[in-house]
Design a protein that fits this description.
The protein is α+β, with helices and mostly antiparallel strands and 415 residues long. The protein contains ten helices and 19 strands. It starts with a strand and ends in a 7-residue tail after the last strand. This is Methionine aminopeptidase 2.
Length: 415
Amino acid sequence: MTRDDDGANDDDDDDDAGDDGDDATREDGEATTATTKKKKKKKKKKKSAAAKQTRPPSTPVRELYPGAKYPAGEILPHREHNLWRETDEEKRELERLEENLYNEARQCAEVHREVRQYISDWVKPGMKYIDVCETLENSVRKLIEERGLEAGVAFPTGCSKNHVAAHWTPNGGCESVIDKDDVIKFDFGVQVKGRIIDCAFTKTFNDMYDPLLKAVNEATETGIRSAGIDVRLCDIGEAVQEVMESHTVEIHGKEYQVKCCSNLNGHSIDPYRIHAGKSVPIVKGGVQTKMEEGEYYAIETFGTTGRGYVIEDGECSHYMKNFDVGHVPLRLPRAKQLLGVIDRNFGTLAFCKRYLDRIGEQRYSMALKNLCDNGIVQPYPPLCDIKGSYVAQYEHTILLKPSSGVEVLTRGEDY
């Protein structure tokens, strides 16, 4: 978001007998040609069982989809003023030319679906947040067949809980444990050749929170249905807010109107650039900039029982190299070295301290601070509403296709 301000083959035997049986003979004891010739037994090979996903997920999705053709997401038709696109030959040809790129995005989306469905079923109170995140991320790495900057995890797993809306993931050594009353926003991404899929859901273990989750999911769905080529971003925000704030919820015996986190937004996505410049508001009064053909967007909404406004608070875990940063002279040798590590391993994709730990970096705190102080790397501290409040989030990645409509790439059976 952006913030303002082979199974074995079996043989099947066919024992086909002649009219008089395979052993019928003439009176002289010689077997007749017609009846003594044993028919060749046909060997029928059973088809090898299709590859199935393991639990936890570890089978690359490439092995689950022969020919590496991945399923399309939900297709929503163009809005009325753009229906001409569906039959326009130029737009249809443009779409055909982009099919390989769409397929890469769909591969990422399939990885996301399989991993999130497992995590949602598997995660339980009492588990350490760091163990859950590492299980999730390792599953992504296996399913996408991690290949450095070419394919892998797109950004750190957000597992922000309760009043923390976003940008929290455990740092190394964190002992924080999931509580049965936690409201957890699982926000993670997958990328191939920089094409990022960004998708999130909220997990709870107490049905008291169900109305809050329902309100936020409905608001996100409203944002998705409102999106399209030539749609003004401000109109999406107004539609989202109307749906979100029509809900009231009761939590611990107290009634709340659900509010939008007014300074959190969805965003456009470009290759290797999670926040590509356009923000999709979730309240009215935003900019009149329009969505355009071929763009990818993360449509996400945050609903809260708090004040509806987030601030930075707490220990930082998320970092990202600024996309447009040029050459900045660095005096600290360790900072220069760390920048090289970041360039080689993450580029302009977001990373966290756990990822630096994972590749063997040590004693990097001062160097990382130096890169942040010089504007090369941007820190993204946790974004929080007031303590005691609860924030829920849902998010999908959509694609504005030239001809066939809006594709909700990350749509699944779960949400």
